[in-house]
Design goal:
2 copies of one chain form a homodimer.
Chain A lengths: L1 E9 L6 H12 L5 E14 L7 H13 L5 E7 L1
Antiparallel strand pairs in A: 1-2, 1-3
Amino acid sequence: MAKAHVIVRLKTEVLDPQGDAVRRALERLGFEGVKGVRIGKLIEVELDDAHAADLKPRLEKMADAMLANPVTEDFEVVID
Amino acid sequence: MAKAHVIVRLKTEVLDPQGDAVRRALERLGFEGVKGVRIGKLIEVELDDAHAADLKPRLEKMADAMLANPVTEDFEVVID
């Protein structure tokens, strides 16, 4: 079994209201000094061995086609 | 500015319907051999320099208190 993961982050110029809500909640809980929180996704993918070749370009195609929204998000493929 | 991130994953024994939906969608798009997809969160935190000491235990407390649900999720703190 081949494993890889795709990290999907909001582009830096895109506002992250979910991250801001978490930052404020951390403040309310007494955690000081938190300047910013950004929330992204970690998508872990398992492929069978017959499809383990060219894992990186294969995963990049998946991310491009579906896992990330190219308008608002950047992605990074990591082979485990 | 100190940076760290928290990776939050569903515990392995917890079903991931969102991941399953992504797996099926990848199949429908023609991506073969995808055996499993699990979706987690990547929470990137920036702290000011006055709070940069003991970053790992500080982030672990945040994750424990709020960023992860200890019943269904595991987390991992990584200092950037």
